[in-house]
Amino acid sequence: MTHIYNFSAGPAVLPREVLAQAAADMLDWHGSGMSVMEMSHRGPEFISIYKAAERDLRELLAVPDNYRILFMQGGGLSQNALIPLNLVGHKPQPATVDFIHTGSWSAKSIKEAAKYANVNVAASSTTSMPPPSAWQLTPGAAYLHLCTNETIDGVEFCVDPGWAAPQDAVLVADMSSHILSRRIDVAQYGAIFAGAQKNIGPAGLTIVIVRDDLLGKALPACPSAFDFKLVADNDSMYNTPPTYAIYIAGLVFQWLKRQGGVAAMEERNIAKAKLLYAALDADDFYQTRVAADSRSRMNVPFYLKDESRNDEFLAGAKARGLLQLKGHKSVGGMRASIYNAMPLEGVQALVDYLNDFAGRR
Ligand SMILES: *Cc1c(COP(=O)(O)O)cnc(C)c1O
Question: Domains, the chain, ranges and CATH?
Answer without folding.
Answer: 17-258 (3.40.640.10), 261-358 (3.90.1150.10)
